[in-house]
Amino acid sequence: MHPAPSVILFTTFSGLGFGLLFWLGLGQPAPTGWVAFAFFALAYAMAVGGLLASTFHLGHPERAYLAVTQWRTSWLSREAIAAIATLLTGGVFALLRIWDISAAPLGWLVSLGCLATVFTTAMIYTQMRTVPRWRHWTTPALFLALSLAGGAILANRGSAALVLLALAAVLQLVAWITGDMRLQQSGTTLGTATGLGDIGRVRAFLPPHSGSNYLLREFVYVVGRRHALQLRAIGLILAFGVPIPLIAAGLGHITALVAVLAHIAGVLCLRWLFFAQAEHVVGLYYGKR
Amino acid sequence: MTTLPPPSAVKLGLVIDLDTCVGCHACVVACKAWNTQSDLGAPLSDQDPYGADPSGTFLNRVHSYEVTPQDRPTQQVHFPKSCLHCDDAPCVTVCPTGASYKRQADGIVLVNEDACIGCGLCAWACPYGAREMDPAAGVMKKCTLCVDRIYNEALPEVDRTPACVRTCPAGARHFGDLGDADSDVSKLVAERGGFDLMPEMGTKPVNKYLPPRPRDADQIDILAPLLAPVASDGKGLIAWLDKALSKLPGGHA
Hints:
The complex is a heterodimer of chains A (about 290) and B (about 250). Chain A is mostly helical and about 290 residues long.
């Protein structure tokens, strides 16, 4: 799949933003006044900024309001509703906290909304039968773990961050190890795609067009796969390897900044691989994967 | 509404005969031409059409495959591919705006371009690559089964069929109601063992493909002897001309 920068930025930063909002909703930490303002502003800047970035790849962003209408069947629609509802209730909760008015049940509702938003985002990818690598429980599990881990670092929840980072690292490894085999295990081949597999061995002989097209650009992205192993190592080191020892040693202002920046860079790298390594079955028609 | 309607009684679709298709791409061109002049939606645009890296939006494309059976010679199969108007269309249910829909009356899957935000998710959900985003219009394009031809009473009756079917010089494409077991297309599918593409995806395509007939193992080409070069050594005037011309500077012996 084509790793569109807008979608990578969207999933990474809205995940972090909603992750931070999750911890603020739980009252972990429970700041008031200007400190609360700064925390909520950071969460909203990332969550809303990410959502705005996602509209950049739309052909007609001016019609985006229609995207809340099809919640009965569409995970994208459900995500839009969950994000808007969470941000609205979170806004009320933020104002109450800034004025030091206790509103714990509303905060729990906000936290629940954050989980729902990140889960629905992940389900947009998980639902795709056409991308066997994504169609697995590790996709929502990893999206949630990364969101909550990143949020915990930003919220300075040291021990929670350590546990969640370790969990996310394990989930990432499981997703890679099982995901690398999933297209093959899905049973979809050029033989089933053309229906000619029962006759004999099928080979793509001539492509239908001499140039490129939308399908090849969007679904058959092969550039990233060459350096996948190196990028996986870099992603793991930045997202987990750098922050975990820093947090374990106790964060100061400088080390906290390093841990946050390394984690964000690492998650961006992992999210890039999430798209670049995903094989869409339409590639089979072109004799590619 | 992106909730799929209950399976329709009428299932309009195509039956494509892989035994007959000659791979001429006339259907590709006819489709592009009709759907570019049609006022049903945005035209199918081209990018850099006369430049170094041309590409464009097409609703129908013809692949060519090579199939090697265990005990027979390899055969080439031309393979036209367009929207299969699936009964369980995943492209419809993923649409967040309701722009993608399947018609209750005849099962045709369409896009309401005025409601399409161009998010591309329906193309992600389609295993067949039947949908292409038009970069100029910013909306998703797909086969309409020429819904503006098949019901169009302004056209002569012979033309009330999809442009690809109307133009196919080999008669490899058939249009009809696959929901009616007694229709010509349904009989053709039953007779020839028509099959679905990627049945494991659970999309339940309406369009069917007819398999290529097996080639004979010891195929004798009866035309080959007639194509052998004639008059390798001519007589009379031709022989003299041949000799004389060969003696000229630059001539071949």
